[in-house]
Design brief:
The structure is a homodimer. By secondary structure, chain A is of the alpha/beta class. The first copy, chain A, has 2 domains: 2-162, Aspartate Aminotransferase, domain 2 (3-Layer(aba) Sandwich); 168-273, Aspartate Aminotransferase, domain 1 (Alpha-Beta Complex). Chain A has helices at 9-15, 34-43, 65-77, 101-104, 132-146, 151-162, 165-191, 217-226, 257-273, and strands spanning 2-4, 23-25, 27-28, 31-32, 49-51, 82-85, 109-114, 126-129, 197-198, 206-210, 232-233, 247-251. In chain A, strands 2-1-5-6-7-8 form a 6-stranded mixed β-sheet, with helices on one face. In chain A, strands 9-10-12-11 form a 4-stranded antiparallel β-sheet. In chain A, helix 7 (165-191) runs parallel beside helix 9 (257-273). The longest helix of chain A has 27 residues, at 165-191.
Chain lengths: 274, 274
């Protein structure tokens, strides 16, 4: 199977027990590079491609519409299957919505999403829109895995959505998260060394920071934790674990703005003093 | 891995994606035959044994205490790992409780159970008691599989149990199911041909019926469904699917007693007329 480098850690953890051979695709600030996808599909036997195209975990990056069209054309040309994971698409703070790749290549995409980031993670309610034949297989797989998702929670979620509560709740989450993202970006601008770079996503929950070549972000992690600041070292989001040594993922959704500012300041001090 | 023949269909469906080699163990009316277990453990590399020792699905059979002691001694002797699946143990209508194998060989058994048969299947709440090291692995596996079970449902179940509601609810289920089992056993005695045999379990949800050698229970299924009576042909509970052609599983928990009597009568008519 083909994955972005970096990609969502939890997806790697879910796939790995089935012992797939991960084929890595290149990314830049606009996410997956279409030429890299085409190269991978030409070279080998790819069962499916896994992508988080919008406000990606861990980078926060979003694939622009023009590139989505190229990706859709490529998967149609090679009759490839794409799993489009979209947990964060509704958490947009700026800019305009971009259609999912599913809308551009419906027969080649299994679109998956969740209520975890917009309603309640504790309900464990996700959903998917797959081509007909794959939907039938997924029902069988779901039965073999856990028989079914809690009917109680499914009914609760259905009432929540049908009653218009999700629509009314979304603006509240966006009003909550957006200033936190601003606070973190502004603190990074203020405190972080000039040879560090980071993403400026228009939504989602994460920022991706790249230090200078050779910088060991995991070493920084152990120093920062002593001062009660934690983040996820970036290399865990690479299928090889050999890449991304100089990267980190920051999450701005849990702390208040003052704590975010203080924490980025502490991180910058730890970077400077080693 | 080693499984009883027959064993729980849903377990086979859960294990099969990992492509295990199933090693089949012999059973009789008292469940797993300990000599068969020892033979299997001597012969090969068994990662774990899967058993439903109490009111087994599909046969309803329960392994007696003396045999449980033998099984416990064997798994200790070979330092083998047993997964003891016990969803039905609380549904006892007659006779005395028998301790789980977990109690006889605690370091060699992962005991698993569920609230699905005694509280509500729609909550999807199960639980397990495993040796320490395996518990740590299970936490990691659980995170990789689905991160966690719904916190909302876990809290709901905890309140239900702590409040004593489960204890008060159990007698009601037993009073509901026990006469249904009586009705089905009595209907089988009345209507079924003399060359058919069936189990008479002291609890649980299932009866296991064996027809004469060569009798095709799947053919009977298709005839019976035309008259609105369904059951599960027994061969689906064998890892090989080559065995159990002449067997069937009956479930008496869903229908009322009159319907049970009528349905067994219809089945017997279909058996007699072909």
């Amino acid at each position: 199977m083909a994955v972005e480098a970096p990609t969502y850690l939890g997806a790697l953890q879910a796939f790995t027990p089935y012992e797939p051979e991960y084929v890595r695709m290149d990314t830049d600030d606009d996410g997956l590079i279409p030429e890299s996808l085409e190269r991978v599909l030409t070279a080998g036997n790819i069962k499916f491609i896994y992508l988080v195209p919008t406000f990606q975990n861990p980078t926060g990056r979003t694939i622009p519409l023009e590139r989505r069209r190229e990706i859709a054309d490529i998967i149609k040309k090679y009759n490839a299957l794409l799993v489009e994971d979209d947990p964060y698409g509704e958490l947009r703070y700026r800019g305009r919505d971009i259609p999912p790749i599913k809308a551009l290549a419906p027969d080649n995409v299994v679109y998956i999403s969740t209520l975890s980031k917009v309603f309640a993670p504790g309900l464990r309610i996700g959903f998917c829109h797959a081509p007909d034949q794959i939907s039938k297989w997924l029902v069988i797989v779901k039965q073999g895995t856990d028989l079914h998702t809690s009917t109680f929670n499914q009914a609760l979620a259905a009432e929540y959505i049908a009653g218009g509560f999700l629509e009314r709740h979304l603006p509240k989450i966006i009003d909550l998260y957006s200033p936190k993202q601003d606070a973190m970006l502004s603190a990074l601008d203020t405190y972080f060394p000039k040879d560090f770079n980071w993403s400026r996503p228009e939504g989602g929950m994460f920022l991706w920071v790249e230090g200078p070549e050779g910088f060991d972000m995991e070493e920084l992690y152990w120093q920062a934790v002593k001062r009660n600041v934690a983040f996820v070292p970036g290399r865990y989001f690479f299928s090889s674990r050999q890449e991304g040594i100089e990267t980190m993922r920051l999450n701005y959704t849990m702390a208040d703005e003052q704590t975010i500012d203080n924490s980025i300041k502490v991180l910058s001090e730890v970077i400077k003093t080693g």
